[in-house]
Amino acid sequence: MDPLCTASSGPRKKRPRQVGASMASPPHDIKFQNLVLFILEKKMGTTRRNFLMELARRKGFRVENELSDSVTHIVAENNSGSEVLEWLQVQNIRASSQLELLDVSWLIESMGAGKPVEITGKHQLVVRTDYSATPNPGFQKISQYACQRKTTLNNYNHIFTEIIEDGESSEVKAVLNDERYQSFKLFTSVFGVGLKTSEKWFRMGFRSLNKIMSDKTLKFTKMQKAGFLYYEDLVSCVTRAEAEAVGVLVKEAVWAFLPDAFVTMTGGFRRGKKIGHDVDFLITSPGSAEDEEQLLPKVINFWEKKGLLLYYDLVESTFEKFKLPSRQVDTLDHFQKCFLILKLHHQRVDSGKSNQQEGKTWKAIRVDLVMCPYENHAFALLGWTGSRQFERDIRRYATHERKMMLDNHALYDKTKRMFLKAESEEEIFAHLGLDYIEPWERNA
Ligand code: DCT
Ligand code: MG
Ligand code: MG
Description:
By secondary structure, the chain is of the alpha/beta class. The protein folds into three domains: 1-141, 3-Layer(aba) Sandwich (Rossmann fold), CATH 3.40.50.10190; 160-234, Orthogonal Bundle (DNA polymerase, domain 1), CATH 1.10.150.20; 235-441, Beta Polymerase, domain 2 (2-Layer Sandwich). The protein has 17 helices and 14 strands. Helix 7 (179-188) crosses helix 8 and helix 12 packs across helix 14.
C-alpha cells in the first residue's frame, strides 16, 4: 500500500484521526501509468497537499509521497517555475529536462475531466532564463519552451501521445471506445472534414462513412469529394520513400519554370519523421515577384497535363511586406500556397506488393506547397518545419522573453521598433538569443 502524507509533513498531532483515516484507505487503481506526480508542499501547505494527493489518487493518478527519479510531473501552487527549480536545488535534486513543472490548475482540471488534460502554456510554470544566477553549475534548468529543449523523435517524454497512440491506458481505452469520439475520429479522417461537419453528421445519426457517402441528401465540398474518392490512399501514411519521390516531381515541375528556385521539403519529414500525413514543401526564388506569383499556377497546369493532378486548392497570397507579425501563436500565414492531391506512380521495385487495389499502379498523396518571397524564406522555413508545438513555443518565447513578435513571415523587435532580417534559421535563433535547435530536435 502507498502510505499517504508522510514525506515532508510529518504526523499531524492535532487531528490524527483525519490523517489516520486517509492512511487506512484502500489503495487506488492507477489509471494513468505513464504519469507520476509529485505535489509540492511549499506555499500550498500540508492539509491542502494531503487533500489533493488523496483526491488525485482516487481519480486514478499515481502520486508519489517523495520526489524520486520516476516523477514526471511536479505540481505546485503559488510558485513560479524558477521557485520550484530553486527548491529542487536546495533538496539537491537534479531535475531532468523531461520533468514537467505545472500549476495546480492542471491537476484540478485533470481531476475534473477524469483524465490528464492536455498541458498548455497556461499550466506550465514560468522559468526565468537567468543562467548566471545558477549557483550549482551541474544543475540543469528546465525550460517551459520547446525552443529551449531538444526533442528528438525517440524522446521518452511523449507521455500523452504515447498513451494515446498505443492505447495502453485503461482510461484512454474508455475514451477511445466512446461512440462520439470514434465517430469524430472516423469522420475527420476524411480530407476536408473538420469538427463542425463531424458534429453535424453525428447529430444526424451517421456512424459510418459508407452511409454518409451513399446518402443522397448530403452535399459535399470539392475537397470532401476528393477525400472520399482517395480515402484509402490518404489514410495510409506517406512513407519517406514516397515523400522523396514526390520531391522529385515537385523539383521537376518547379525547375521547368524557375530553374533558380529553392525547393525544400519541410514539415514532419524535415524533422526526420519516417511517415507523415502529407508532404510539405517551401519554394522560394531570388527572381521577380511576377515570376513568383505565376509559379504555382504553372506547376499545377504542368501536372494537370501529365495527368498527375487529382485535386488542388490554390490560395492566393495576402502577404503585406511591412505588416507586424501576428500576436496569435496559431495563426495561418499569408503566403501563396497550394493544397494538392497528387498521383504518385509506384516505383518499379514495390509495384504490386504494397497496393491492395488490384491493378492500381499509383497512390494518391497529399502535398502542401508554399511559395514565399525570398527575403522571408528563413522565417517561412522555420514556420513550416514545425512541429506545431515547437512553433507555438518559439513564438511565445519571442513575445514573453524577448519583447519580439515572430511569425512565418518576419521577426519584429518591439523595443528597437524594427524588423530583424534573417537569411537562415540560425540567424533567427541568434536574434532571439536562443541556442540553435536542429530540425530533428524540434519534435515537441
Ligand atoms: N503550418 C503552418 N501553417 C499552416 C499549416 C502548417 O505554419 N497553415 C506549419 C506547422 C507544421 C508544419 O507547417 C507542417 O504542417 P503539417 O503538415 O500539418 O504537420 P507535420 O508536422 O508535417 O505532420 P505530418 O507528418 O502529419 O504531416
Ligand atoms: Mg506535413
Ligand atoms: Mg502539411
